[in-house]
Amino acid sequence: MFRLFLAALLSLLAAAPAAAKPFVAIFADERGTVATDLLAPYAILAESGAVEVKVVSADRRPVRLTPGYAWVRPQMTLAELAHHRPNVIIVPALEVEDDPATAAWLRGQIASGVRIMSICNGARVLAKAGMLEGRQATVHWFSVGRLQKSHPNVRWRQDRRWVTDGPITTTAGISAGEPATLALLAELAGEEVMRATAARLGQPLPDVRHDGTRYRLTLGGMMTTVLNRAQFWAREDVAIPLAPGFDELALGTAIDAWSRTFRSTGWAVGPAGTTSRHGLVFYGAKTPPARFDRRFALPGPDVMARTFAAVGRAYGRATGRFVALQFEHPAGAVSPA
Predict the structure, then answer these.
(1) Region of residue 112 (phi > 0: left; psi between -120 and 50: alpha; otherwise: beta)
(2) What is the Cα–Cα distance from 44 to 41, expressed in whole angstroms?
(3) Is there a contact between 148 and 124 (Cβ–Cβ < 8 Å)?
(4) pLDDT digits over 175-205, tens only?
């Protein structure tokens, strides 16, 4: 009798559906969403295999990835997302930060118990929606001063790469999105999954320690900006070729970095509808430049350092460091004050 009971129990367990994976939605606005802020969290979570992650937008129109020229097709609309309950919604930096519909939607999500994580200046979207009042938060180093004035009831911290206060996590500048997403992955799927994912992607383990005061616009940085802007006749268009199965994290970094030099703009080029490593569909510009001044092949591991080095070889070490500074990456930190 016991054997029959055991056999029936094992049969029921085998037939039971697998537990649903945690679900993360990354919000995108077709008017402009910062490339690395969107693609780095997507690449990390999708690579883990332990989390379901989708790029969601108001509709199915391709989303412009700024500051360069690349477009990505959303995988789900907000109306479709309404039939699912994500564990987390990630908010990248957006070109339009004060859209009333976006603010109302985000407030509704947090009221329903969904956790929110902003990347870099995505915190400005949350602040303008009134979601950070009375909380601790962090943001890109360049935004801190203005936000301290416009939102004095928020405790803006510069001593951590990411800050969690209740159901909201905010991160420092662009490069903080990677360790913060790995930390989120550890919470959603466990330390072992996070470590294995970081190893496959060549990412260091997440470290929350940070000194945001080492990221500031120095006289040297201002001179680099002025000199690069002044060389308008030498501006370059940089082609970033896409091939099926390309790495999303590498594309985000490349588009971002080459478009922040004040000397060049990054353009994704390849067949329309090229699919990335983890299933995102990308498009280049409908009317790209007639010719490109240089091409940049997507690098492998240690993507940011390799890209900053390539920018430095093209336009000088000062420009490479200046781009790293904009990413709030250690390579761009200045000496302690």
Answers:
(1) alpha
(2) 5
(3) no
(4) 999 999 999 999 999 999 999 999 999 999 9
Please, what's the b/e burial string for 105-123 (b: 16 or more CB within 10 A of its CB; e: otherwise)? bbeebbeeebbbbbbbbbb
pLDDT of residue 9: 45
In the chain, the domains with their CATH numbers are 23-212 (3.40.50.880), 219-332 (no CATH)
Count CB neighbours of 226 within 10 A: 10
DSSP 176-197: GHHHHHHHHHHHHH-HHHHHHH
Query: What's the distance, CA 62 to chain centroid?
Result: 17
- Token pair, residue 317, equals 């070490």
> SS3 for 230?
helix
Model's pTM, two decimal places? 0.93
Instruction: Kindly give the parts of the chain with pLDDT less than 70.
Output: 1-19, 337
pLDDT value of position 89: 98
Token pair belonging to 104: 């109302």
Report residue 336 as tokens.
């302690």
Q: Two tokens at 32?
A: 């402009």
- Count the neighbouring beta carbons within 10 Å of the beta carbon of residue 77: 14
For the chain, state the CA radius of gyration. 21
Residue written as token pair 């206060």: 165
The pLDDT of residue 12: 46
- Yes or no: say if 201 and 43 are a contact pair by the CB < 8 Å rule: yes
